[in-house]
Structures are given as structure tokens and as C-alpha cells.
Amino acid sequence: GQNIDQPTEMTATEGAIVQINCTYQTSGFNGLFWYQQHAGEAPTFLSYNVLDGLEEKGRFSSFLSRSKGYSYLLLKELQMKDSASYLCAVIDSNYQLIWGAGTKLIIKP
Amino acid sequence: DVKVTQSSRYLVKRTGEKVFLECVQDMDHENMFWYRQDPGLGLRLIYFSYDVKMKEKGDIPEGYSVSREKKERFSLILESASTNQTSMYLCASSGQGVTGELFFGEGSRLTVL
Q1: Which residues make Cβ contacts (< 8 Å) with residue A1, sequence separation at least 6?
Q2: Pairing between strand B56-57 and B23-25?
Q3: Distance of CA A38 to the CA centre of its chain
Q4: Chain segment A26-52, per-residue pLDDT in tens
Q5: In A, which residues are within 8 Å of B105 by CB distance?
Q6: From the list A40, A45, A99, which residue is nearest B43 (CB)?
Q7: Which residues of A touch B99 (CB under 8 A)?
Q8: A-chain residue closest to B106, CA distance
Q9: Between chains, do B42 and A87 touch, taking CB under 8 Å as contact?
Q10: Side-chain half-sphere exposure of A86, counting CA atoms within 13 A
Q11: What is the DSSP letter of B102?
Q12: Residue B44 and residue B54: Cα distance in Å, rounded?
């Protein structure tokens, strides 16, 4: 079966750095998304990786290793507003989008 | 500013009632999707549509139907609501199929009593 694993919950301190991991086992691979979802709100797009390596976008970076079936989202200089759930999703060989259950990130002052 | 609007944020219905969830997008996107989101589970695709009057089943279509009579509007219908359909329902649209960025509505939280 197809599977995406993310930690259920993480806690970090304001101003610090946090890395949220995502591992996947899917039938093929055509890209990986990260979305952010604040409580009670719509998910919003953060990043898309299809090639190996690091993509940096301001305080957020996303890394992909296709050979390891692994991605991470790196958040720097954490702010209280970064408290949210972070959703990892993979496009499989049939161009179906497979979603992880999400990681709830709690930021403490 | 791109926008996906869902008609109701919160609904409470009784078992056996017919439920309509409406979704409208203003981005002229061809592709629209209905998901449900439950705690501890990833988003699960109910139905999607790549064109007007076209629909495809997703992973969990049982108990649901959809309608896409106009490009901008995608409706989800629960013919006879059941308690296990209590969930958050998210509509999304995309201009590039599943490989493109999805734009989500704010969700409709349905409670079936």
C-alpha cells in the first residue's frame, strides 16, 4: 500500500529552528508538496519539490531525497504565527495525490 | 486574489437528510476536488472533476455524489447523510491538475446527528 509518515506533533521555541520530516512509500513519484494549515483554516501551499535537493523560500526550506523516499520542511527563526499543521503530500505514478496525516507544530514563547 | 468559496462553514443535519455542499472558484480553473479531513488521517479524496459535466471517483466516493454544471461551481451531495459522514469537507481547485498548486476553500464542518 501507499504510505506517508510524518510525526503527529512537534513543539519548538520561538526564534529557534525546527525540521519536520516526511517519509513516503508510494507507487512511483512525480513530486512532493508541503502545505500549511492553521486551525480552522484552509491549507495553503508552501513548496513543491520534484528534484533532489534543497529549495529555499525565505524562512522556509524544503528538501527532497527521492532515493531515500524522504523530505523535510525546515522552518527558521520561528514565530508564534508558525503554529499550525504541516501537511506532506506525494504525487504517485498515476498522478494521484497521497496525503500524510499532518504534523501539528506548537510554538512556545 | 484567488478565491475558493464554500457555501457553509458549519452545518448540522439529521441522519437521512440530503445535504448539499457548494464550492465556487473565481480562478477559471479546470480542475476541482472534494476532500474530507478527519483527525489522524490524511486528506481523502471523494470526487474530482477535470472539466464541466465531468466527474471521477476518488478514494472514498461511497455515499457521495457530485455535480459540475458550470466551470466555476462544484457541488458535493450527500443523498442520505449518516453519522459516519460527520467531518470537515474541503473543496480545492487547480489550474494544472494534481501537479499544480491546490487552492483550498476554508472548509465546511458537517455534523450529522
Answers
A1: none
A2: unpaired
A3: 14
A4: 999 999 999 999 998 999 999 999 999
A5: 42
A6: A99
A7: 30-31, 91, 95
A8: A42
A9: yes
A10: 30
A11: P
A12: 20
